[in-house]
Amino acid sequence: MSLLTYRKLASLLVVALTMAGLLAVAPGQAKAAEFRVATAANFSDAAREIGALFEAKSGYRPLFSFGATGQLYTQIAQGAPFDVFLAADQARPERAVAEGLAVADSRFTYAWGRLALFSRDKGRVTGEATLHEGDFTKLAIANPLTAPYGAAAVEALQALSLRDALTPKLVQGNNASQAFQFAATGNAEVGFVALSQLAVHEGGSYWVVPAKLHSPIAQDAVLLTAGKDSEAAQAFMAFLKSDAARAVLARYGYES
Fold first, then answer.
1. Can you tell me the distance from the alpha carbon of 187 to that of 185, in angstroms, rounded to the nearest whole number?
2. 115: alpha, beta or left, given left = phi > 0 and alpha = psi -120 to 50?
């Protein structure tokens, strides 16, 4: 037998053994360790870090989809195959339970968020005075109808009696991440963003908006009905309450 023929036979044998191994795996078993998490955009960086810690500990892999809380809820209501919902408010998870989309006793507040006024320019944001002076042409916010951080920004402007004056300068992002991108790239000189987004951003200037100027940003987690029998999803919900997860939350400016 020539060396070339021997190598061909060996290759065929490897392929045959590989196929046999794949066929031996029960349907769906290959992805049994994965589960899907609908995640509020403001929580994206913290979620990735918590997800990596959870996977290293458990072997389960969370697959995150990020977006505005309202948009994610619409997807869930339309049957999107998510197992866990990490919202940026309490209203949507509560509604998910009421409408039979989530497990009733699984809902809890995993983080309390803070709103910040941010500019990529050093020294531009000096506090509340930055808004009163209005020395900018564009102010970025997330869509207040779908993004809780956008709603909090509008409340803050209202509390400061600046809503009417600054509304013509507002530019809306679909979610907190897009609002941050507008400000970080300079497409808007200033923007209302989640404080957590500044934890991994260097430079610029910002002001943490006093919590008294808007409703509390309580971010709730809930186990969706699609994930009620998923050990991975249940374990992840429990991990969100762990000291390891809380340490990550603290680094990103969340209160837990």
1. 6
2. beta
Amino acid letter, residue 46:
A
- Give the three-state DSSP class for 199: coil
Where do the domains of the chain lie, and which CATH numbers do they carry?
A: 29-112+217-251 (3.40.190.10), 114-213 (3.40.190.10)
Q: Which two tokens stand for residue 23?
A: 């066929």
Greatest alpha-carbon pair distance for the chain in Å reads 89
Q: pLDDT tens-digit profile of 143-197? A: 999 999 999 999 999 999 999 999 999 999 999 999 999 999 999 999 999 999 9
CB distance 189 to 124 below 8 Å: yes
Alpha-carbon distance of 124 to 208, in angstroms, equals 14
Q: How many CB atoms lie within 10 A of CB 88?
A: 31
Cα distance between residue 200 and residue 206, in whole Å: 14
Q: How many residues does the chain have?
A: 256
